[in-house]
Amino acid sequence: MNIYTNATVDATEAASEDPHGCWWGLAVLASAMLFGMTTWFSATAVVPQLGTVWPITSGQAAWLTIAVQLGFVVGALGSAILNMADLIAPRRLMLYGATGAAASNALLLAAPDVSVAIALRCLTGVFLAGVYPPAMKAMSTWFRFKRGTALGVMVGALTLGSATPHLVNGLGGLQWQLVIVVTSLLTLAGGLLAEVVGRDGPFPFPRGRFDPRMAWRVFTDRGVLFASLGYFGHMWELYAMWAWFSVFMGDTLSLQGVGAAGRWSAIATFAVIGIGAVGCWLGGVLGDRLGRARATILAMTISGACALAIGFLQTAPIPVILAVSLLWGFWVVADSAQFSTAVTEIGRQDYVGTALTLQLAIGFILTIPTIWVVPLIEEAVGWRFAFAILALGPVAGIVSMRKIRLLKST
Is 251 exposed, middle or buried (0-12, 13-18, 19+ CB in 10 A)? Predict the structure, then answer.
């Protein structure tokens, strides 16, 4: 099978997958990741309420989210260097990570000030690095033929979870202590669900041995390198779009004189981010049928075009703005799982977990400068060009994925 250019497999290989067991495994692990990752955005959902408990500046409010990403990077890099995702059973590692994240999140209830809260958010991110990468590896043991679709559903679950805080804000915030307790319990439940209810699939990866050098040697495979470079371009765009779209929409609605702009902006943002869950599923289907390279190039072409155009539409009719925004939200994340799928298919099989973890770590590092720079550009020249810089990521990603199509089949 040439996974670089097409996804054709013979009937024997396709039939080797248990049509019932694999989808049951997907349902369990996708639910486990959805629950397990809820603590990522728990503080984001209750920032207005936290502002009544502690004096919080706008910069500190942003750090309540950025700290989780930094913690995730630290945790993922440490996990990659220690080969944790290849030495510890993936579902067991998910339980460890979920337990730590749930505890760190729950400690927000006792935090005396925002500085301690930010530190706890960072620690939450560290532990979540033990949930996301091993969940992707665990799911890969269930699928060969439709692995792209399966991992697309996994990332779709994460996407829907990412959108939920905006719905909470749009419908009216809940008591912040309740949000923290519920998200902590859900994260713990996700870890328990993976370990107790879940099981390994029929296509396990060979167990690796401890070798810190493999944290970087995994990139000596050109296929893994190009797939990861494509993912880095994707991440350059994704989280900055997710982080600042609600502000853009709020400004746009206010500019056009729409009442309750903040509320409608939050609801619109939930729809724009949430529709990406469907995009992840379709991206997986296309990845399995057309190949990872073609599917990701299609997604990045459309999302990059939307990034270039959206800022120029502030005075356009609201339905037009919403249509382009939904198109962007659909395609901006549709390719996400396909980069990871490619790594599981072409990377060294005994260090797949290490490769996935390192790919995610570097990708999340690249989200930080774009989240930081978008509001600076908006303040200087307005929204017309603030989002346009994000299109650089898809351009770089397209170049990388075009290169991967030139590689020979393995």
Answer: middle
User: Residue 9 class from Cβ within 10 Å (0-12 exposed, 13-18 middle, 19+ buried)?
Assistant: middle
Q: How many CA atoms lie within 13 A of 391 on its CB side?
A: 17
State the average pLDDT over residues 310-322: 94
Helix (H, G, I), strand (E, B) or coil at 88: coil
Instruction: Answer whether residue 201 shows pLDDT above 90.
Output: no
CA distance 68 to 298: 30
Dig out the tokens for 352 from the structure. Answer: 């797949």
pLDDT digits (tens, 9 = 90+) for 25-64: 888 988 998 888 888 878 877 777 788 888 888 778 778 8
Asked whether 281 and 30 are in contact (CB, 8 A), the reply is: no
Token look-up 């989240």 returns 371
Distance CA 323, CA 314 (A): 13
**158-174 CB burial, b ≥16 within 10 A, e <16:** bbbbbbbbbbbbbeeee
Question: Can you give the pLDDT at residue 3?
Answer: 45
For the chain, the residue count is 410
CATH architecture classification, 17-199+215-406: Up-down Bundle (1.20)
Phi and psi at 173, nearest 5°, equal -65, 145
**CA 219 – CA 228 distance, rounded (Å):** 8
d(CA 74, CA 95): 19
Mean pLDDT taken over the chain: 84
* 322 pLDDT tier (thresholds 50, 70, 90): very high
Pair of tokens at residue 157: 């679950």
Residues 6+ apart with CB under 8 A from 160: 34, 274, 277
Break the chain down into helix, strand, coil percent, rounded to 5: 80, 0, 20
Q: Give per-residue pLDDT as tens, 67-87.
A: 998 999 999 888 888 888 778
Residue 410 is predicted with a pLDDT of: 39
Contact 97, 41 (CB under 8 A): no
> In the prediction, which pLDDT does 210 show?
52
And the tokens for 304?
Answer: 């990059």
Q: Fill in the DSSP letter of residue 282.
A: H
The 3-class SS string of 207-246 reads CCCCCCCHHHHHHHCHHHHHHHHHHHHHHHHHHHHHHHHH
Domain boundaries of the chain, sorted by first residue: 17-199+215-406
